[in-house]
Amino acid sequence: MSAPACPSESAAPDLRALADEELMVLVRRGEAxxxxxxxxxxxxxxxxxAYRMCGLRARxxxxxxxxFLSLWRSGGRYDPxxxxxxxxxxxxxxxxxVDAFRRDGARAxxxxxxxxxxxxxxxxxxxxxxxxxxRASRVRSALLELPEEQREVIELAYFSGFTHSEIAKMLALPxxxxxxxxxxxxxxxxxxxxxGGLP
Length: 199
Hints:
Elements: H1 13-16, H2 20-28, H3 32-54, H4 57-73, H5 85-103, H6 114-119, H7 122-144, H8 148-159, H9 164-171, H10 175-195
């Protein structure tokens, strides 16, 4: 995968010696090679996050491409006071993946262990797939019923793997507020899933 809207030649070696925040100063000036270094450093974790959320390689690549194009266009808006460059990148990837997920009508990703699927009879595999899809659909429905501020912290924690303190920095909120929103949102989801017959 190559950096979007960046030149194909390798970035100058001295750029690679710069810290992320220093590179972002150059990105703000429109220096594509600086952004290429940012892409090289963070594309791997970005793809891992997108793949974990989407479950499909092609979709994850598309999400990462969209996210980095968006970051390139809005590079001047990076604010180091709100968190690291990696948090900024992963937060954007997370938001793009959620957008793609909503755009596609909250379809459950088809993630299976290849070894498991080879050993299972077709009928049993179909039954497992139906059960997983149904469960994932109910969880997502419960999540989408939450107020935006509760849904956001839960998505960042459970889909993206951010800690409470990372979420607090990213959203510029006190850690106690993040924990409170998460507790309240998870409590509402438990009630909704219990009413739907899920443990």
